[in-house]
Design brief:
- Strands 1-2-3 form a 3-stranded antiparallel β-sheet, with no helix packed on it.
- Helix 5 crosses helix 9.
- The N and C termini lie far apart (62 Å).
- Helices cover 57% and strands 4% of the residues.
- The chain contains 13 helices and 3 strands; from the N terminus they run αααααααβββαααααα.
- Strand 1 and strand 2 form a beta hairpin.
- By secondary structure, the protein is mostly helical.
- The chain folds into 2 domains: 82 residues, DNA polymerase, domain 1, CATH 1.10.150; 174 residues, Orthogonal Bundle (hpI Integrase, Chain A).
Amino acid sequence: MDRYIEKFIRYLEIEKNYSKYTILNYKLDLEGFNKFLGGTALEKIDYLVLRKYLAILKEKNLKNRTVSRRLSTLRSFFKFLIREGYLKNNPITSLSSPKQEKSLPLFLTEEEVTKLIEAVSLKGERDFRDRAIIETFYSTGIRVSELVGLNIEDIDFIGGVVKVLGKGKKERIVPIGEIALSTIRAYLERRKKQQEEEDALFLNKSGKRITDRGVRNIIDKYIHIASIKQGVSPHTLRHSFATHLLNRGADLRSVQELLGHVNLSTTQIYTHLTTEKLKKVYDKAHPRA
């Protein structure tokens, strides 16, 4: 199994061009499955073995989302093995994933976003960087991995768009507001001269590209200063971006394109949030509500 897993990981790296974080998740999932097998040969893996594996995952009280992801990893793995001729029959075809919990994403109100942005006092270079990061998140709705990967050349200040490298190394063009662009300009003007050779848009205190963890620490810092609800992360600003667009009349398909979602179903979770607003409007406006 170790050999097959290694071949599959190389396939994800070379042919699928997945990010290192996605590949790491696949690898961890498969290593966990391999540990469960305890030396069971590939041709001995059948539906009953997989049912037992699923039962063990449920015994660990893992969330349905986590269990579904691990089964999705196995589906991709077995599909690869069959395509390459290492396996004749796919043992996972009749195994269904657990029902997903319908948990709504956490988002900030428009007032809370303003409060968060204004919590950054513009005194030094790092303050301008921090505000530019928050403004960019809220203006574009990009993921934290996409934000840290931005280079200066990816920002089109004249056209008002950003070139983003998303999941699966897929590029997309995302509009960015003038307020965010102005904040980025102000930050770049204050960057130290010795850092100007660095291509990355956002730098850490050492003058190197900022990391995911560094960005999360920045958001945590200003969430605390602004005294906003707990549990807020960079992804919360992405949720807020989508929710506020829909609340103000944007159509779902456009929001899907902006977020870089492959399937519209991924974006549809935000309609649950906007439906609540529609109900309030209905109750207030309809004579027989």
